[in-house]
Specification:
Chain B: One of its GO terms (molecular function) is zinc ion binding. The complex is a heterodimer of chains A (about 350) and B (about 375). Chain A is an all-alpha fold and about 350 residues long. Chain A contains 18 helices and no strands. Chain A has helices at about 5-10, 45-55, 65-85, 90-105, 115-130, 135-140, 150-155, 155-160, 170-185, 190-210, 215, 220-230, 230-240, 250-275, 280-285, 285-305, 310-330, 335-355. Chain B starts with 16 loop residues before the first helix and ends in a 22-residue tail after the last helix. In chain B, about 10% of the residues are buried. Residues about 1-25 and about 350-364 of chain B have low confidence and may be disordered. The chains are: A mainly alpha (about 350), B mainly alpha (about 375). Chains A and B meet through helix 9, helix 12 and helix 14 of A and helix 11 of B.
């Protein structure tokens, strides 16, 4: 049995299970107006009250640096890949789940939302997104100290975090196409193509997922880069060459384009070579890396947002607030309606103000 | 009005003919041959022939005498035409100018044989007719120069539109034939109808006779004082018979036998040689990788091969070509898309970097 850190084991706030385990999609009520102690230096009312309670004032914790956060996200991505391997998920599901997690942490911090929980949630949600349906009970049984509710608690949050973009374009199918084309063009070099196919696939299964390749390059570019790591000559064959008999200006344009494509592929290759697939095992077997990540996790324990450490409680609180609000609206008919109207205005202004490709933060 | 050698007429006309042809014929032209001066008095069966080359008349005996041994010059003084025996024919019209005009018109019609259906508008058809008429008039009544010009135009047109003329001629012949067939069929149907009517009349007569006999018989055999009853019975029977007959007639009429004359024939659809092209000539074939089915057959691996050959794959309608098209598309699509070109240099506000403003906590 593999060992995964669970919120129960590393969270100082004990988890409680509630009676209802409905899917997370119903949790779109307003969140409690809480302040994040880790990232909000201004004293908000709730924080002030906590400060008043704690008799010697707590000094602000030592936050993670961006570099440390990046390393942690990479570490959790590798953990996710490991978990997917353990559950024997198909390659596409594994890759989709990993990209979901990475996309989520583009706009959120590991200090805000617990990566150990979201890792499982994104794996479960990746199954759904790829049409590979896994029963929740079976899935949660695979992990120690994990209930189905814990997995579902972060689901809506994850969807919001990835801005409901569930489609991930992978380079795996592109690799099959490229290999077919190569086999057609090089009928005599079957063993060379076959070897390149296997190695490139191994690279695609790991390297682009733990680097930022998916954010910077298109699937076919990633695929070409992985092929160029294995056998550079094959990429040269695949990328279309300028036509021999075309007119000069067009041929020049074509050559420039080809050069640009080759440069992009080379850039992507450099990125992928940072994380060759041989390193995958190192992440959990080599003692140096394990040792290097341990202090980071300890540091994360100290500086993370205590209000969001437990996603189950967070979701329950949100749901209760929704119910309360509805009750209030039901009691005061007119004010409820008009209050709703007034309440929408600031929200719209808020949405307009946040001019971000990904939308406002969660 | 069958004529020999109408199509073999040479088309040259020289000056001088018109003058001689246009000259009013002498009163005794039918009596004396101008060549041998033989009169009808000596030869009862004298027959005059003309040659459309020059329309000079001469008797049959002269024609055979002069042209039997091959082409020879016209015996008329001052006419230097070379005539052939084959070209001679008897004139249909007494007036040779009319004969000549009819010949010319026939020739022009054979060349300009378009019909109204060939034109888009009636106006263009009328223009065409006007043009043809002008040309014909030039040929018939024009001066030397205009005639020569018209002649050359006609020849040129004939040479240029040989195929089209031939086609139109064939069409005209066909429509002629169909018309004749239809007339024949009409005649046949009318004949049959008449025969049927005659037969029906005869049947009716026989029936009436039989009824009469039956009536008389039953009246004879009926008991005394029951004559009216017997009459009634016979009348009822007759009425029933009549009713049946009318019904049968109606069904026969409904089944057909009617024919309407003068219906326009249905046009056959215009068939282009080329197949219909839905793209209107735009080439949609991809530039780089051809995913036409015959090209896709060149791509293979173990899996595709099994999908192609095994019945359990093909029975469900699975088409490996779709898979191949998709993987090839994914292999090359987006190669020329550069995300770094589209990047706008600005910070992405994250939850932490956005000033920690927790009012933005809940965007939905």
């Amino acid at each position: 049995m593999m060992i995964l850190s669970t919120p129960g084991s590393n969270s100082p706030w004990p988890t409680k299970t509630s009676g209802t385990g409905s899917p997370a999609s119903s949790a779109c009520g307003p969140s409690p107006r809480t302040a994040c102690a880790s990232c909000d230096p201004r004293p908000t009312p709730s924080r002030r009250s906590r400060l008043r309670l704690a008799s010697p004032p707590i000094p602000p914790p030592d936050f993670l640096t961006p570099d440390e956060e990046t390393r942690l996200v990479k570490f959790f991505t590798v953990e996710l890949i490991r978990a997917a391997q353990f559950c024997e998920m198909p390659t596409e599901v594994r890759a989709t789940a990993a990209i979901f997690l990475r996309r989520f942490y583009v706009t959120n911090s590991v200090m805000t939302y617990p990566a150990t929980d979201l890792l499982k949630t994104s794996l479960f949600f990746g199954c759904k997104a790829e049409g590979y349906f896994y029963k929740l009970v079976q899935f949660s049984e695979k992990f120690p100290n994990t209930t189905g509710e814990q997995i579902l608690a972060g689901e809506f949050l994850l969807c919001q975090g990835i801005r409901f973009a569930f489609d991930v374009r992978h380079p795996f199918r592109a690799l099959e196409g490229a290999i077919l084309e190569l086999r057609r063009r090089l009928p005599d070099e079957d063993s060379r193509v076959r070897r390149a196919h296997g190695q490139a696939r191994e690279i695609l299964k790991f390297s682009p997922l733990v680097t930022d390749a998916y954010f910077h390059y298109t699937p076919s570019q990633i695929m070409m880069a992985s092929l160029s790591i294995v056998d550079e000559g094959l990429v040269d064959i695949l990328v279309p060459t300028p036509p021999q008999n075309g007119d000069q200006s067009k041929a020049k344009e074509h050559a420039e384009m080809r050069q640009k494509i080759m440069n992009t592929i080379a850039d992507c290759r450099r990125m992928l070579e940072e994380e060759p697939p041989e390193r995958m095992m190192d992440y959990w077997s080599s003692p140096e890396i394990v040792k290097a990540i341990k202090p980071l996790r300890k540091k994360l324990q100290k500086c993370r947002d205590p209000d969001r450490a437990n996603l189950v409680n967070l979701q329950r609180a949100r749901r209760e607030q929704t119910v309360n609000k509805e009750k209030k609206a039901a009691k005061l008919d007119d004010t409820g309606v008009f209050g709703e109207e007034l309440g929408r205005e600031p929200k719209r202004a808020k949405l307009d103000k946040a001019d971000d490709v990904f939308g406002p933060p969660l | 009005m069958s004529r020999l050698g109408g199509s073999a007429i040479s088309v040259r006309h020289s000056s001088g003919i018109a003058a001689s042809a246009a000259a009013p014929a002498p009163v005794d032209q039918d009596e004396t041959c101008p060549v041998c001066k033989t009169t009808r008095y000596f030869n009862r069966d004298m027959e005059f022939l003309i040659n459309p080359e020059c329309y000079h008349r001469m008797c049959k005996t002269c024609v055979e005498r002069i042209f039997k041994d091959g082409p020879n010059q016209c015996p008329y003084a001052g006419c230097h035409k070379t005539l052939r025996l084959r070209g001679f024919k008897s004139a249909f019209f007494a007036d040779l100018t009319v004969e000549r005009e009819v010949d010319i018109r026939r020739r022009v019609d054979a060349v300009f044989n378009k019909v109204e259906e060939d034109f888009e508008t009636l106006d263009s058809f009328n223009d065409y007719l006007y043009m043809v008429e002008c040309l014909t008039d030039d040929l018939v009544n024009g001066s030397d120069e205009s005639r020569r010009k018209a002649e050359s135009q006609l020849l040129e047109w004939e040479a240029q539109h040989k195929a089209e003329i031939e086609r139109n001629r064939k069409l005209a012949r066909e429509s002629d034939e169909t018309r004749q067939r239809r007339v024949a069929a009409d005649k046949d149907a009318t004949r049959q109808r008449r025969q049927l009517e005659r037969q029906a009349e005869a049947d009716e007569k026989v029936n009436a006779l039989r009824f009469r006999e039956e009536m008389l018989d039953s009246l004879q055999n009926a008991e005394m004082g029951r004559a009216t009853e017997a009459m009634d019975r016979i009348m009822l029977k007759k009425r029933g018979q009549q009713k049946r007959d009318t019904v049968m007639d109606a069904t026969a009429a409904a089944a057909g036998g009617l024919s309407i004359r003068g219906l326009r024939e249905k046009k056959t659809a215009v068939v282009d040689e080329k197949p219909y092209d839905p793209y209107g000539g735009i080439v949609v074939a991809p530039d780089r990788i051809d995913v036409a089915p015959e090209k896709l057959a060149g791509y293979t691996n173990e899996w595709v091969e099994s999908a192609r050959t095994k019945t359990e794959f093909r029975a469900g309608g699975y088409n490996p070509d779709e898979y191949l098209t998709r993987v090839l598309f994914e292999a090359f699509s987006g190669l020329g898309v550069f995300i770094s070109d589209e990047r706008v240099e600005k910070g992405v506000p994250t939850a932490a970097a956005g000033g920690g403003n927790m009012d933005l906590d809940e965007p939905f």
